[in-house]
Amino acid sequence: LAKTTQPISMDSYEGQEVNITCSHNNIATNDYITWYQQFPSQGPRFIIQGYKTKVTNEVASLFIPADRKSSTLSLPRVSLSDTAVYYCLVDYYNQGGKLIFGQGTELSVKP
Amino acid sequence: DTGVSQNPRHKITKRGQNVTFRCDPISEHNRLYWYRQTLGQGPEFLTYFQNEAQLEKSRLLSDRFSAERPKGSFSTLEIQRTEQGDSAMYLCASSFEDRGLGEQYFGPGTRLTVT
Questions:
Q1: How far apart are the C-alpha atoms of A16 and B20, rounded to whole Å?
Q2: What is the pLDDT of residues B45-80, one digit of tens each?
């Protein structure tokens, strides 16, 4: 059964690096992993996407180990404005195209 | 382009009534998705379109729910005979992709309250 699992909450301080891990045990070779950020009363906003090894953009990095059963979103030097809920989304394309979000990780950044 | 828009932003209805929501995607996007999100949970996939074709429907989408995307432009999601359990935020997203999963741009959502 396809499932996407992530921690419910995390705390951090300004300037620290934050790593949020998502578990997706039944992922197949070509299934994509995407991370979104959501603020209250807004729709989710795309952060980063990948399906193997490492992807980096101007705001985050995504690490995917060889077995692809998990992935880690890395946010360098967080600020107060990064306080939000972060969602992992897996497109289980090879299992009928089911798009499954994790339950979200509420990140609280403190001064 | 101003992004994905959804109307109305809020809807309060009585149990048993029908409601219809509209989503206007980013104009050049060929894919359109509908999700439902309840408080404290991640969005739940409902259905998606590639152009005007509805390609996938979640088993969460009962026969009271129907979605259309005429001419591959805007989309509507209708819920018939609403129930209190339908109270949620309904999110629409669009993307441009010819294969795989692209970056989805989400609208602000329509919050439905069924009394």
A1: 45
A2: 999 999 999 888 887 778 999 999 998 899 999 999
